[in-house]
């Protein structure tokens, strides 16, 4: 019934049952969902003699649990805690549809840093079920160590069943449909899976739980590039949200017409000024090249992103802010290219994250840059929310999106051996391009190195061998950020013949940092070095 | 097989726009040269050669362009070459000095 260590008996089970029953029966019918949950949680805390009680409800995508009501863990709601189904304590309860108890909380069994920071020692949680559907999770915690008994679990499950029924009953069909439709227009149900790039995002309504016009969006483009958008339609409530939904879709539509962020924003501006009345929005639009080494950004009055590189203090990226959308048609909108080396993070956000009443904007921005560091996207996102929102809800709504490029993995050297014939050249270029993409070369660096190697290879094909033919060997390896390419043959080099020849050598010298040519009895070797652009360029 | 595509359009009588797309290297340079000779007839007064759609152009391809420039000069047909900023062909055209014999344009 009660763990021996506990010492205090909360009473007989029959008594519990009556009290819980009473909870749902007496005069609660008039209460809104929030007030009802609040009342029920208070009673659960009292009945089970615990320090924290929390309800997490499944979001419309059914992939996440979202903190919805709590006694003692208010930060969870303010920070918009989202727990993926199947992971962590609450995620496991929802996935396994059964009670889970954790006698001693540690890093391995609890995902949510707030539980650890609060000093919660022991946890018991049960699923919220209606019929066969999981609606969410109800969990309780204590600040001192406690072994929850089977009876505690039973009691909590009874409370959970009533919470589930009451919640569902109060969420009328229309309300739920409207809420879902709105949320679906607010945020992508699930962030896309992008190889080599980790994504994490949060949306938290402003003080009073009011949704606003903030949004974030991530989607692939037909060319293979990735489009990332964060924006803020000025205003509050349903009207701002609905306008935001329209603007978000206009951005998506224009992204199919142009992949140039500045041009896309120009179109959006024309669209908004033609079709909308009294709408103003700030938008940051970014398009990442395949491989995500380079990101082109254009800002319509939006706060600048934060860039975190390994081993360097994080900083605001200098993205000149052109006028917001919906005001005037500016003569020009500008693009800025950000270099994103392996292991780097970019954090995009709306002003609600950094603006506090009675505080200059610079302090908010300074707190943000201090909170951003290289690391997994989810961790960085949680750290930013914790450091900037903490326990003090923002007056405005907040959207945050973190992009993390995977840390550099060693790029294995590449060796190609091909017959020295013209037909082999295209395959060599293809393999070299793939290698350089893995090595994180920019588009221009890639084109330069491919052409330099192409020239050296064409020389081998044309000049190294007699009619009997021979082999073309291309070898690529990385030394730090320097690519060393070796192109060799086993024939006898001869000088270029014919008119307009010898241009290849000029090209090679112009394309890479250094070219060395060695001839010996066994053939000719051309060695070329090019250092890939430095960090932050 | 290295592939290149040659498409022409007569913008107005005597003015020819030739778009060269794909890749040009040692393997297909002669084929490309023949195609260009076919499409540019001596009735043309001026030719604009657009290399914006070219993903690869090496010295074998440049050889074709230099030869074409020579030939068209002899025939008194004006030639300018479009190499957009940042396009793969631009660097090769600049480094090889193609700009000394024809007009290089960004658009």
TrEMBL record, chain A:
Keyword Transferase among UniProt keywords: no
CDD domains: HATPase_RsbW-like
Domain of life: Bacteria
Alphabetized InterPro entries for the sequence: Bact_Sigma-Reg (IPR052016), GAF (IPR003018), GAF-like_dom_sf (IPR029016), HATPase_C_sf (IPR036890), HATPase_dom (IPR003594), PPM-type-like_dom_sf (IPR036457), PPM-type_phosphatase-like_dom (IPR001932)
Keyword Repeat: no
Domain PPM-type phosphatase as annotated: residue spans: 194-405
Keywords: Hydrolase
GO molecular function terms listed in the Swiss-Prot or TrEMBL record: phosphatase activity
Alphabetical list of Gene3D superfamilies matching this protein: 3.30.450.40, Histidine kinase-like ATPase, C-terminal domain (3.30.565.10), PPM-type phosphatase domain (3.60.40.10)
Positions of the GAF domain: 32-177
UniProt xrefs under Pfam families: GAF, HATPase_c_2, SpoIIE
Protein known as: SpoIIE family protein phosphatase
Organism for this UniProt entry: Pseudonocardia bannensis
From TrEMBL, chain B:
SUPFAM superfamilies tied to this protein: SpoIIaa-like
Gene3D superfamilies recorded: STAS domain
Transmembrane portions of the chain: none
Domain spans labelled STAS: 13-107
Name by which UniProt lists this protein: STAS domain-containing protein
């Amino acid at each position: 019934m009660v763990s021996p260590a506990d010492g205090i008996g909360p009473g007989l089970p029959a008594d519990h049952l009556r009290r819980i029953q009473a909870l749902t029966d007496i005069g609660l019918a008039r209460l809104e969902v929030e007030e009802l949950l609040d009342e029920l949680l208070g009673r659960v805390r009292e009945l089970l003699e615990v320090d924290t009680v929390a309800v997490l409800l499944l979001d419309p995508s059914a992939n996440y649990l979202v903190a919805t009501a709590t006694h003692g863990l208010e930060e969870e709601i303010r920070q918009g805690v989202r727990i993926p189904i199947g992971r962590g304590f609450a995620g496991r309860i929802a996935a396994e549809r059964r009670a889970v108890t954790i006698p001693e909380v540690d890093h391995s069994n609890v995902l949510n840093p707030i539980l650890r920071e609060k000093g919660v020692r022991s946890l018991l949680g049960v699923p919220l079920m209606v019929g066969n559907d999981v609606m969410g999770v109800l969990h309780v915690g204590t600040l001192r160590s406690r072994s929850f008994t089977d009876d505690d679990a039973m009691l909590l499950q009874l409370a959970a069943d009533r919470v589930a029924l009451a919640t569902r009953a109060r969420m009328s069909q229309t309300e739920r449909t409207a809420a879902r439709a709105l949320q679906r227009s607010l945020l992508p149900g699930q962030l896309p899976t992008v190889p080599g790039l980790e994504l994490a995002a949060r949306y938290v309504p402003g003080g009073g739980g009011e949704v606003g016009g903030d949004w974030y969006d991530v989607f692939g483009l037909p060319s293979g590039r990735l489009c990332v958008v964060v924006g803020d339609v000025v205003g509050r409530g349903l009207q701002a949200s609905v306008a935001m939904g329209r603007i978000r879709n206009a951005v998506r539509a224009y992204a199919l017409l142009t992949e140039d962020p500045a041009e896309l924003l120009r179109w959006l501006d024309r669209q908004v000024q033609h079709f909308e009345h009294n709408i103003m929005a700030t938008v940051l639009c970014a398009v990442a090249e395949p491989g995500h080494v380079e990101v082109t950004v254009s800002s319509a009055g939006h706060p600048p992103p934060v860039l975190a590189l390994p081993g360097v203090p994080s900083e605001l990226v200098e993205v000149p802010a052109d006028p917001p959308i919906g005001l005037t048609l500016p003569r020009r909108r500008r693009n800025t290219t950000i270099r994103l080396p392996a292991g780097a993070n970019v954090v995009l956000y709306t002003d609600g994250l950094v603006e506090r009443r009675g505080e200059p904007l610079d302090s908010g921005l300074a707190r943000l840059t201090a909170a951003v560091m290289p690391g997994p996207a989810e961790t960085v996102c949680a750290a930013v929310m914790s450091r900037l929102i903490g326990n003090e809800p923002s007056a405005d709504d907040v959207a945050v999106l973190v992009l993390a490029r995977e840390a550099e993995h060693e790029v294995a050297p590449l060796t190609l051996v091909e017959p020295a014939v013209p037909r082999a050249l295209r395959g060599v270029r293809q393999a070299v391009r793939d290698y350089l993409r893995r090595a994180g070369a920019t588009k221009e660096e890639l084109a330069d190195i491919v052409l330099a190697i192409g020239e050296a290879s064409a020389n081998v094909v044309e000049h190294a061998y007699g009619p009997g033919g021979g082999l073309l060997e291309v070898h690529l390896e990385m030394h730090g950020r320097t690519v060393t390419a070796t192109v060799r043959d086993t024939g006898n080099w001869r000088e270029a013949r014919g008119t307009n020849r010898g241009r290849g050598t000029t090209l090679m010298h112009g394309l890479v940092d250094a070219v060395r040519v060695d001839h010996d009895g066994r053939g000719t070797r051309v060695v070329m070095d090019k250092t890939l652009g430095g960090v932050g360029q | 097989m290295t592939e290149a595509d040659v498409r022409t359009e007569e913008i107005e009588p005597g003015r020819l726009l030739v778009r060269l797309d794909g890749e040009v290297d040692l393997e297909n340079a002669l084929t490309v040269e023949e195609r260009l000779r076919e499409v540019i007839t001596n009735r043309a007064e001026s030719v604009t050669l657009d290399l914006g759609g070219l993903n690869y152009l090496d010295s074998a391809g440049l050889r074709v362009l230099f030869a074409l420039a020579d030939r068209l000069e002899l025939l008194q047909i004006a030639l300018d070459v479009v190499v957009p900023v940042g396009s793969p062909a631009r660097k090769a055209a600049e480094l090889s000095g193609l700009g000394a014999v024809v007009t290089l344009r960004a658009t």
